[in-house]
Amino acid sequence: MSQSHETSQSQETLSNLLQETRRFEPPAELAASANVKAGTYEEAARDRLAYWAGQAERLSWSRPWDEVLDWTDPPFAKWFVGGELNAAYNCVDRHVEAGRGAKVAYHWEGEPGDTRTLTYADLRREVNKAANALLELGVRKGDRVAIYLPMIPELPISMLACARIGATHSVVFGGFSADALRTRIDDAQARLVITADGGYRRGKASALKPTVDAAVADTPSVEHVLVVRRTGEEVAETERDVWWQDVVERQSTEHTPEPMDAEHPLYILYTSGTTGKPKGILHTTGGYLTQVASTHHSVFDLKPETDVYWCSADIGWVTGHSYIVYGPLANGATSVMYEGTPDTPHKGRWWELIEKYKVTIFYTAPTAIRTFMKWGDDIPAQHDLSSLRVLGSVGEPINPEAYVWYREHIGGGRCPVVDTWWQTETGAIMVSPLPGVTAGKPGAAMRPLPGIGADVVDDEANPVPNGGGGFLVLTEPWPSMLRTIWGDDERYVKTYWSRFDGLYFAGDGAKKDEDGDIWLLGRVDDVMLVSGHNISTTEVESALVAHPKVAEAAVVGATDPLTTQAIVAFVIPRGDAGGDVEGEDFLRELREHVARTLGPIAKPRQIMIVPELPKTRSGKIMRRLLRDVAENRGIGDVTTLADSTVMDLIAEKLPGTKSEG
Ligand code: 6R9
User: Quick check: CB of 523 below 6 Å from ligand 1?
Assistant: First the structure.
């Protein structure tokens, strides 16, 4: 835990500064035919385990479970004890067997404009061939397979092939370095690595294979590297390499799935967190698949027969695992999957895809929304987005202005926006509006979903009253919860279950408004302590983004001799801001704007105008690096940055930085 968190423990809990009163009722038509109605909350509250048992019926089980939850050895949970199922069978075969083989599973679009359409029948053939190839390469149930692929169909196919034979996959972001890949391969002792020659990003072929070569030079556990030809660029070949096109293509299209225990390890996904060695978050089969299928159905109001669903995340992130692969496929949905970046070959690419495939449900991240705000309203306006009916957000708190922009400019004012709070560790959505039930409040994740226990507590684990702020905790075990940190039970207990007795502490600050609805306030490690007040970075950032000339903002607390910490803000002006956005007048205006919106205590000591912000590949702002800048330190570890040149751009700005005392 950082110093700001430690020092905050004896202080008051988070201040509730931001006042936001806009409300958006669910559209009447959507509410009338919604998958989930208001009564489900009470139903689930009456008997939580019965509710989850009902949700598990969405899946096909080869053997029924004996017990819904075994929580006799907390925090080590077992869900659907004794039950058996195969995740790949549930995601693919059963839809084909039910006569839906011709239904499209993925409309895949490569960045250069090439396309592939995979029906459920196609997917079954491809997954079966890949499963047979894995077996030929010596992979067995219980082995780990590292997957380092671009956003091409072979990525979900590989994951499902692993699931089919009971191998545990560990997908590593295609943007990670050889070092990061090596650490993850080693930690999981992966037997096989699946990769590609490269993928397309920003209009260019971007090589992956050289990174894998560098990583596996030093990983004795790896027996083979299975390489998909995507770009056709020349790659170095070693003894260990085998080509997907040689080994997978000649396999039989038949493979009988083997039922797995409900608690069989489905995958490991590493989260880097803010410090230390990455944590291998372990998810198992039955509970995970139950909750991703259930939430994909309820939160997005998915109607598999008519909806076209698109989640723009990278599959290397948990959002892609749960809401591009397992959730949508378990529900038999039709999805769009896109390989590249949103600005290639032009800044309207995503809107073009929504128009082309008539996407009805769209799920993206606040960082993307703020980028589109910066690029200008005219870009989405050039496309017909009238097919959309539900919009989702995930990854960071969504600032009210970004929410309203998303609702208006993408959703045409008619689509509910669901702000979904969850984590790699939770596996599935935990706190979110339901689009047919909840009146949305811009910036609020609202309520725990049916069957989920969540609360906001103070330092002593007492629930805070409405209007108060504190720590977000989960009060009950949930089906898709992480089971442990791979190979480190002790770290699992220490990281998540030791701050508050019997509660899972998520690491996020949150507040309850006067109605008891939940607003996320960012990581508690980022919370600022200013003259005895805990102030959330999110609230100050939202106030800045509410200024008409601001596109993005990141806020950190820098050590200050007078106030313990002082607020330092990094601001990206909107493209069309005009005027002198570097001048003293503008900076003064912004500081006054924050003071007016939140109160004088939240007035930034200093504002720096920057061209970009440091972000992870999943779009989260890395405030730790900005703190280094604000405190004039050398900049720390930048290995998880999406674009390592960003910190140079910010550092360049420093000599001319405008600061006011
Ligand atoms: C799914 C995902 C988890 C952290 C989480 C929180 C932040 C995610 C959010 C949100 C506010 C939301 N987060 N969704 N904060 N509102 N709707 O992002 O997983 O990459 O593990 O990150 O992301 O801080 O603790 P992961």
Answer: yes
pLDDT in tens, 127-162: 999 999 999 999 999 999 999 999 999 999 999 999
Cα-based distances in Å from 357 to 81, 103, 223, 392, 576: 41, 14, 41, 18, 31
Over residues 616-624, the mean pLDDT reads 88
Our answer on whether the CB atom of 511 is closer than 6 Å to any ligand 1 atom is no
Ligand 1 close to Cβ of residue 506 (< 6 A): yes
Mean pLDDT score of the chain, rounded to an integer?
Answer: 94
Whether residues 88 and 201 share a domain: the answer is yes
In a domain, 460, yes or no: yes
Alpha carbon distance 259, 93 (integer Å): 13
Q: Which two tokens stand for residue 484?
A: 């442990």
Q: What is the pTM of this model?
A: 0.94
In this structure, the residue with its CA closest to atom 16 of ligand 1 is 397
CA-nearest residue, atom 5 of ligand 1? 423
Q: Is 389 in the pocket of ligand 1 (CB under 6 A)?
A: no
**CATH number of the domain encompassing residue 577:** 3.30.300.30
21 lies in a domain?
no
Ligand 1 center–CA 86 separation, angstroms: 28
From 323, 326, 422, 536, give the residue whose CB has the most ligand 1 atoms within 8 Å, as the site to mutate. Answer: 422
Output the CA 410–ligand 1 centroid distance in Å: 22
Q: Which of 508, 547, 548 is CA-nearest to residue 396? A: 508
* 577 and 499 within one domain: no
Residue nearest to atom 17 of ligand 1 (CA): 421
Same domain, 640 and 504: no
Which is it for strands 198-201 and 308-311: parallel, antiparallel or unpaired? Answer: unpaired
**Residue 136, in any domain of the structure:** yes
Of the three residues 489, 509, 529, the one that is the final residue of a domain is: 509
Enclosing domain of residue 430 = 28-509
- For 239-281, the pLDDT digits (tens) are 999 999 999 999 999 999 999 999 999 999 999 755 568 999 9
Ligand 1 atom with the smallest distance to the CA of 620 is: 23
Same domain, 543 and 496: no
Taking only the tens place, the pLDDT of each residue in 578-614 is 888 888 999 999 999 999 999 999 999 999 999 999 9
Taking the centre of ligand 1 as the mean of its atom positions, its distance from the CA of residue 135, in whole angstroms, is: 36
CB under 8 Å to 574, separation ≥6 — which residues? 373, 374, 548, 549, 550, 551
- CA angle, 473 then 475 then 480, to 5°: 90
